[in-house]
Amino acid sequence: MIQNAAGAERKAVPNGGIMLNGAAAADRAQAGSDQKEHDFFWTYTEEPHRTRRLAIIKAHPEVRKGRALATTDHNTNAGASQQVTKLCGPEPLTKYVVAAVVGLQFLCAYTLKDTSFWSWKFWAPAYVIGATANQNLFLAIHEISHNLAFRSPLANRLFAIFANLPIGLPYSASFRPYHLTHHKSLGVDGLDTDLPTALEAVVLDSILGKAFFCTFQIFFYAIRPMCVFQITFTWVHLLNLVVQLAFDFAVIAYLDSYKPILYLLLSSFLAGSWHPTAGHFIAEHYVYETVTPEARNPDNNIPVPETYSYYGPLNVLTYNVGYHNEHHDFPAVAWTKLPKLREIADEFYAPLPRHDSWVLVLWRFLWDKNVGITSRVKRKNGGRKVGGSSEKVAKVADWTPQEIEA
Question: How does it sit in the membrane (predicted)?
Answer without folding.
Answer: Multi-pass membrane protein
